[in-house]
Amino acid sequence: MSDPGGSRGMEPQAVPPQAGPPQAERPQRVLRLGRQAFGPERLLVMAIVNRTPDSFYQPGVTWDPAAAMERVRVVVAEGADIVDIGGVPARPGDEVAVSEEIRRTVPFVAAVRDAYPDLVISADTYRHEVAREACAAGADLINDTWGGWDTKLADVAAEFGAGLVCSHAGGLPPRTRPFRVAYADVVADVLRTTLALAERAVAAGVEPARIVIDPAHDFGKNTWHSLEITRRLAELAATGWPVLVSLSNKDFVGETLDAPLDERVAGTLATTAVSAWLGARVFRVHQVRETRHVLRMVSAIRGDTPPALAVRGLA
Amino acid sequence: MATTIAAAALCPSPPLLCPQLTGRSPVLPELRAACAQVVGRLLSQDPDVIVVVGPGPATGTWAADSRLDLSAFAPAIAEGGTGGVPLALGLGAMLLDQAGYRGPRHLQAAGHDEPAGACAKLGAELAGSGDRTGLLVMGDGSARRTLKAPGYLDPRAAGFDFGVERAIRAGDLAALLDLDQALARDLMATGRPAWQVLAGAMPAPAPATEVLYCDDPFGVAYLVAYLRPRGAEAGSR
After folding, report:
1. Going by C-beta distance under 8 Å and a sequence separation of 6 or more, which residues neighbour residue B22?
2. pTM summary value
3. Pairing with B184, which of A93, A118, A139, A312 sits 20 to 30 Å away (CA)?
C-alpha cells in the first residue's frame, strides 16, 4: 500500500472508522406507537399473545383469559415493548366469524389497556370491523399480516390515530397456504407491495411515523423465498420505513434445519440477529427473553448501546 | 382419423420434482423414480417427436429449448431458465433432459381456463400431425386432499381424484372430458386441461394403461401412468 505522506514511520496507520452494518443507510425515522416514540437505534420486541385455541405454536396456551393476562405480565417483565393480540390463526381451518374474533380479542385488549396504560398494544387482524373495535378498546397498532386484503384497515388506523403494519402476502387471500409460488424477484415484489400499501395508508390519513413494513416470512413464500428476503433485508430497511419481521418458529426455520416445531428457537434467534444487523427494528416473537438478549447483543456490537457492565481487563 | 400417438406418459408437475429445489434431503424418491421410469418407457418407443403438454396461463407453444427458471422458486439458485415458461412444461423438459433425450420436442401449453372441447381439439391436432408422437402429459390432481394440503381439505377432492384415477386405469379417457371445469378449479386440480388434451389425442379404442404411482404425500394428488394404443402396430405408420 502506498503512503503518499511518507512521513509516518512505524506508527500504525489510521484506520477509517468501520461503517457499521452493511445496509445502504440506517433508517432514520422515529417510529411512533401509542404515546411512545422510538428512535432508529431502538430494537423493539413484539410479544405474541394468541387468543386462539388452535394457533400453530403451543396451541391454546393463552386461550384462557387468565393465562393470556399472565402471559402479558411475563412478557412485559421480560422486556416486551409491544403485545400483539390475535384471535384468528394464520393457517387454514374453521371459519372464525367477525363477531367471534371480536369476542376473543377486544375485551382482552381493553383489559390489557386498563392494566398497562403505557404498553403498546397491537391488534393482529386482517378485518377492519375487528380493528375498529380493538382500536376503540385501546389498541395502538393494527398488524395486518395479509397484505391489505381488507382495504378499510388503513381507514380505521387513520380514524383512531393508530399505526399500521403493511405486509407482503404474495397476493394470497387470508388463511391460505402458498402453492408453487414463483417470483421473478421476491424482494422486488415485497418492496413494490409494501411501499404501495404504505403510500395508500398515508393517503388514507395514517400518520407516516406510525407505519411499519413487514416482508412476512412464509406468507406466500417458500423457504427459499423467506431466506432471500432475510439475506436482502437491508433493501427494505433502506426505504426508511421501519421494518418488522415475524420469524418466530416458522416453517422456513424448520425446513432449513429439518427441525420440528419445538426445536426452532435457535434458528429463530439466528435469523433475528441477522435481521437486526441488516436493519429490522421490530421483532414479533414467542420467546421474549431470548430475543431481548439477542437484540441487546446486536445493539452492543453495532455500538448503539454500551455493555451492561464492562470491567473485564479494566481492573 | 387414426391416431399417430406412439405412447403417452402422465406425470405430475410439482416443483419438488426438481432435485435442486428441495435441499439436501431426498424428497419423494419413489415419485421421482416413477417419473423417470415412465419417461424411459415413452422414449423406448422411439417416437419421431415428443410433445410435452401441460397447463399454462394460456394455450400456446413454447420454444423447444425452453427450460424452467429455477431462480423463481429458489432465488439462491442462480441458474435462470426461460422466464415465464409454465411450470408443467419446464418440468416436462427437465424430465426429458434427465432421461438424456436429445430428439425433437414440442412444448404445448393448454390454458387453465380452456374448455374441454378446445382441449380435446388441440389433442386431436397433436395426434394428427403425421409424426409418430410421444406425449408427455404433465398434470396434477387436487391440492386439497388433507388438512395440511396447500389448499386445505376439501371433502370433494378425494372423489374427484379417484374419478381421474379410475378413468386412467380403465383407459376410459372420454371420462376425462366430462370433468367439471369449475370443480377442478375449486379443488386446485391444475392438470385438468392437460388430461383433456390427452383424451383428445387418444380417442377410442381405449388404450392399455398402467399406473406406476398414485398418492397424495403432501396433500396434492400425484398420478404417474403409461398409456399405449391397443392393437398390433397401433400408433405406427
Report:
1. B16
2. 0.91
3. A93
Closest CA to A155 of A124, A131, A191: A131
Q: Where does A31-302 sit in CATH, by number? A: 3.20.20.20
Question: In this structure, what is the dihedral angle of CA atoms A75, A77, A80, A86, given to the nearest 10 degrees?
Answer: 30
**Cα separations (Å) of A165 from A196, A213, A294, B110?**
12, 6, 23, 40
CB contact under 8 A, B75 and A228: yes
Task: Round to whole Å and give the CA distance between A130 and A122.
Answer: 12
Q: How many residue pairs bridge chain A and chain B with CB atoms within 8 Å of each other?
A: 45
The nearest CA of chain A is from the CA of B75 a distance in Å of 7
User: Cβ contact (<8 Å) for A183 and B72?
Assistant: yes
In contact, A214 and A167? CB cutoff 8 Å: yes
DSSP of chain A: ---TT---TTSPPP-PPP--SSSSS---PPEEETTEEE-TT--EEEEEEE--S--SSSTTTT-SHHHHHHHHHHHHHTT-SEEEEESS-SSS-S---HHHHHHHHHHHHHHHHHH-TTSEEEEE-S-HHHHHHHHHTT--EEEETTTTSSTTHHHHHHHHT-EEEEE--TTPPTT----S---S-HHHHHHHHHHHHHHHHHHHT--GGGEEEE--TTTT--HHHHHHHHHTHHHHHTTSS-BEEE-TT-HHHHHHHT--GGG-HHHHHHHHHHHHHTT--EEEES-HHHHHHHHHHHHHHHTSS--S---TTT-
* Cell representation of residue B58: 394460456
pLDDT band at B130 (very low <50, low <70, confident <90, very high): confident
Q: Catalytic residue among A71, A221, A281, A284, which? A: A284
Minimum CA–CA partner of B16 in chain A = A180
Concatenated DSSP letters of B67-104: ---GGGT-TT------TT--HHHHHHHHHHHHTT--S-
Q: Residue B110: in which H helix or E strand, if any?
A: strand B105-111
Write down the ipTM of this complex: 0.90
Give the minimum alpha-carbon distance from A187 to chain B in angstroms, rounded to a whole number.
10
Q: Does B27 touch chain A (CB under 8 A)?
A: no
A94 in B contact zone (CB under 8 Å):
no
The full set of domain ranges for chain A reads: 31-302
The arrangement of secondary structure in B5-228, i.e. its CATH architecture, is 3-Layer(aba) Sandwich (3.40)
Q: Does A251 touch chain B (CB under 8 A)?
A: no
